[in-house]
Backbone:
């Protein structure tokens, strides 16, 4: 587990560290599912109260492994670990079906004092925090490689911390638990799948088209393209059912899986063109972009690139839309595809910005994994939370560390989770209206117009 300082997080003040509750590790008496630890310490706070962050401290030994389990009867807490200077070095939000959050596999980088911050929620009671220590010398685990055959494979994960590459073909990766028992975080070309209870390893997954859980299948085909289209036009992440329906339509049309090639199909493929042109009937589209084309073009650039276009680019896109040469959706996709293929110095920064934003958007959608959260992601407030989250992502954002902000954004509009949430299936694609198409252009983009 990385222990570099997390610069996006608040650090502890001297008075926070001075007032921290001390955890004194003692011989561990294991409860069910708590074997393998040598020492443990716990602190409880049964009283309900307001939102607050409990600060704890302990003495760690370099090279030894530690874990923290925090329980809150309303919502799984968030957990941070701080070094002796009060700098945040680890953050975690792995949810367990018993109402706990679990930070695991923390290997102390030095011998000395560490601090833990555990965020509890309004009205919670039955709060408790438990620290575990393993006195054996810990080493960072190396994932076990599992490779596909090059054909269509069905691969099985044992959740032992595996490095899975499906290779060529149409591959499925199978897990024994329900979807909501696992976190899925996309970073670049890698998907990390981890059990939320923290009791198993994390798999590194590449070149797999479907992930099958006991209660449903997550189809990865076209998912990043669909997220990029939602991001570019609406500035937000897709909802799970809308994403699946959009993927299904792209698959049925045998569409290209990248924005640049997809835009080239607009003029010659009636099905893609119809899908592209369907976005204009969206109430969200009309509410976001009711008038001025200059405002629309600037919004697309800002959604994707965190910046405004230069004057020549602004004039070009505005003129093309106002003259009827392009629809607004055509232009949004063309800007996306052009930016992803631009190899100038600015273009490389833009490409990484888009890649990071799309990964965070995908992670946001994937984290909506229980019915209460899925149902809550609608309306202007929820959309605004997603837009704000994505607006802060840049070319230098660390995607794994940013996941805690994804969870904060979801908490801002959804009711607290309960263990019962995890007993439900994700809804099928038919549970959502046909998503808005926002693609296509048959005109080459001059790189200067993306500057």
Residues:
């Amino acid at each position: 587990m990385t222990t570099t300082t997390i610069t996006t997080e608040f650090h502890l003040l001297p008075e926070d560290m001075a007032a921290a509750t001390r955890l004194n590790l003692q011989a561990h008496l294991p409860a069910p599912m708590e074997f393998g630890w040598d020492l443990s310490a716990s602190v409880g706070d049964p009283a309900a109260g307001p939102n607050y962050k409990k600060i704890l401290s302990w003495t760690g030994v370099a090279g030894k492994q530690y874990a923290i389990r925090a329980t809150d009867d309303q919502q799984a807490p968030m957990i941070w670990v701080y070094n002796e200077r009060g700098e945040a070095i680890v953050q975690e939000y792995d949810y367990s079906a018993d109402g706990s959050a679990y930070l695991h596999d923390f290997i102390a980088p030095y011998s000395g004092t560490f601090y833990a911050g555990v965020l509890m929620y309004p009205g919670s009671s039955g709060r408790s925090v438990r620290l575990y220590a393993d006195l054996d010398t810990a080493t960072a685990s190396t994932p076990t490689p599992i490779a596909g055959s090059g054909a269509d494979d069905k691969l099985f994960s044992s959740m032992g911390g595996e490095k899975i590459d499906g290779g060529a073909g149409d591959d499925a990766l199978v897990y024994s638990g329900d979807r909501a028992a696992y976190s899925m975080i996309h970073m670049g070309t890698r998907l990390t799948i981890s059990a939320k209870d923290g009791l198993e390893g994390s798999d590194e997954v590449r070149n797999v088209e479907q992930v099958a859980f006991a209660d449903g299948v997550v189809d990865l085909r076209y998912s990043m393209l669909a997220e990029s289209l939602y991001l570019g036009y609406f500035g937000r992440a897709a909802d799970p059912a809308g994403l699946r329906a959009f993927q299904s339509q792209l698959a049925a049309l045998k569409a290209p899986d990248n924005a640049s090639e997809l835009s080239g199909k607009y003029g010659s493929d009636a099905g893609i063109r119809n899908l592209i042109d369907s976005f204009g009937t969206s109430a969200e589209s009309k509410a976001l972009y009711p008038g001025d084309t200059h405002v629309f073009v600037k919004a697309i650039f800002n959604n994707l690139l965190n910046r405004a276009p230069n004057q020549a680019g602004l004039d070009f896109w505005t003129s093309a839309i106002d003259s009827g040469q392009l629809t607004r959706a055509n232009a949004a996709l063309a800007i996306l595809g052009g930016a992803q293929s631009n190899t100038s110095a600015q273009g490389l920064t833009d490409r990484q910005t888009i890649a990071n934003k799309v990964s965070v958007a995908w992670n946001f959608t994937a984290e909506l994994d229980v019915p209460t959260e899925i149902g809550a992601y609608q309306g202007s407030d929820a959309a605004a939370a997603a837009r704000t989250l994505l607006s802060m992502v840049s070319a230098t954002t660390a995607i794994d560390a940013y996941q805690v902000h994804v969870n904060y954004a979801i908490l801002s509009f959804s009711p607290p989770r309960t263990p019962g949430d995890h007993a439900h299936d994700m809804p099928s694609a038919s549970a959502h209206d046909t998503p808005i198409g926002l693609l296509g252009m048959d005109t080459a983009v001059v790189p200067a117009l993306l500057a």
